[in-house]
User: Which sequence fits this backbone?
């Protein structure tokens, strides 16, 4: 399979095999996380968004794998890199797609607030900070919008005819869309694309008529939640986002 590698991610590798994409997870990857990812993807297949369909979940040489439809195209990240003059056009497409996700409903998905609350409790933070984060989370309006949880340009494949498909639904939940936006904003920062992060946030707020301050209120909550499973080098960065906040 090594000659057909599409992408290598942390603890997983994606291969192209015929008309399928095969995501193979490392042996130590939790079975429940893999099954949850397949379940999330299956749940969002019929909510009006272009998502590669799950075909099967199986074992390959002692490792779990998810087999999905193969979508021929380039990632939005690659297109942005190859066509810097079109970056603004691609950013517009990116924001429109995320708003399309948020406009959908999928009642079977796990609740974002429950996940965030659990992660804050697990975070390596002092009790006072955890209390403040829990309090802030509880005060946030309760929504049931579809939240991707890892919405970034490398998780969007654009076919040659311009049709975009959204990949990697392992973190999908239903909840407040501004938490999802805060997560994407932090992902740009983590990738060193600070100017892009600010342009993205400005554009999303303008298109969705959302106050920037509202999304900024989510940043410490999302950063704390993400720090639990974050890579060591990312963890310090994320904890800084938790600590810089001025609590009301």
Assistant:
């Amino acid at each position: 399979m090594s000659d057909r590698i599409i992408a290598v991610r942390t603890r997983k590798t994606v291969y192209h095999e015929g008309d399928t994409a095969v995501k193979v997870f490392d042996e130590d990857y939790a079975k429940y996380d893999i099954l949850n990812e397949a379940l999330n993807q299956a749940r969002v297949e019929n909510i009006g968004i272009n998502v590669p369909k799950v075909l099967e979940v199986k074992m390959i040489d002692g490792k779990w794998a998810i087999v999905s439809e193969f979508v021929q195209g380039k990632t939005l990240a690659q297109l942005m890199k190859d066509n810097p003059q079109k970056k603004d056009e691609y950013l517009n497409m990116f924001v429109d797609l995320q708003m399309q996700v948020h406009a959908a409903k999928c009642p079977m998905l796990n609740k974002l607030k429950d996940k965030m609350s659990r992660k804050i409790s697990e975070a390596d933070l002092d009790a006072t900070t955890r209390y403040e984060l829990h309090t802030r989370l509880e005060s946030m309006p309760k929504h049931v919008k579809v939240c991707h949880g890892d919405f970034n340009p490398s998780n969007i494949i654009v076919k040659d005819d311009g049709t975009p498909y959204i990949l990697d639904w392992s973190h999908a939940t239903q909840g407040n869309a501004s938490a999802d936006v805060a997560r994407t904003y932090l992902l740009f920062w983590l990738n060193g694309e600070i100017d892009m992060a600010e342009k993205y946030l400005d554009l999303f707020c303008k298109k969705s008529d959302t106050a920037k301050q509202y999304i900024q209120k989510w940043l410490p909550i999302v950063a704390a939640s993400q720090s639990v499973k974050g890579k060591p080098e990312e963890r310090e960065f994320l904890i800084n986002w938790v600590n810089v906040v001025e609590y009301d």
The chain has a mean pLDDT of 93. DSSP finds nine helices and ten strands in the chain.
